[in-house]
């Protein structure tokens, strides 16, 4: 399987909580970073997800928000990963920002130029990537 | 807290309806515009969200769809905000469209060039911004 | 109604399963392709969605992931549509990929350049488009 989603992180399923339509699935990445996903119950069943299984958290770069000064952020987005800006690619409308988050993982975000400039995103600087649980796709081998 | 999400609107929590996994949270923006969000129950608990609290609705520009002639639109997206196009920034693939929606708020959308051209989006024209409740992140101070 | 979302597919509602907050809605497109959406219960009620009704599945190009070698993919994303790449438009950060999926439908995705290059996406090649049920908006006439 090869997919365009820039962020594919390997981990282990640590929790599953099913609702009527959706389920919340927790993963622990190799580096210990937790990731929370909301997928449909039907997907949990079809993939036979179970605690302890190896799985991937897949997040499209356009779903990722970049933040700074998030130490005291109180925000509903369940996933926040901080690190060092490894690369910045600017276009006329969009800017790609890649953040090294430890454990050998880099998370890519596509944000608007105006945001990148307003936040002062530069290579080597500190930044956090945040994304909603509903933006996460779960994959298994 | 500084984040790349272009759309951060201040308001007051007007309703919370919890399900098994997700919760629907309603906000009234300063200008009276309602915004509906779907976040996880765990986020509602962690942020201690309650009716009457001040909160922010945060929406990434790439989650926003631009429409025209939406007066009679029957569509599941819970949030529709109409106004005047304040700015258009074109790139080779993407175009940013900023719409003034009243109450001092502007909403930014990133759409494809082809869509912008097909819809005839021009500065000063009328346009509506629409986004799903699941695209909204809630923040509190 | 005219909207910027590049992907608007006509079909018939084949199933509705309501939860506490969200509902899962299934559509069969004209070509027989199934599409699964997760929308709020309030939207199902407001649109008076019912099995057998004609409806549209609306998906923003930025929510669509492009994949290859997905034959044996085990992934939570509920919607996968495969076909032939009809067009590729490259920008400095983003690339638009249009895939003909049969039944007269083409699905557009906006991905990063790096992904397009890594996947070797070329006009005339085979590719699959995948998107989460939560990325689908339902529209009715």
TrEMBL record, chains A, B, C:
UniProt keyword annotations, A-Z: Molybdenum
Protein name (record): TOBE domain-containing protein
InterPro entries: Mo/tungstate-bd_C_term_dom, Molybdate_resp_trans_reg, Mop_domain, Transp-assoc_OB_typ1
Residue span, Mop domain: 2-68, 74-140
Taxonomic classification: Bacteria, Pseudomonadati, Thermodesulfobacteriota, Desulfuromonadia, Geobacterales
UniProt entry tagged with the keyword Iron-sulfur: no
Native source species: Geobacter benzoatilyticus
PANTHER family reported for this sequence: DNA-BINDING TRANSCRIPTIONAL DUAL REGULATOR MODE, TRANSCRIPTIONAL REGULATOR MODE
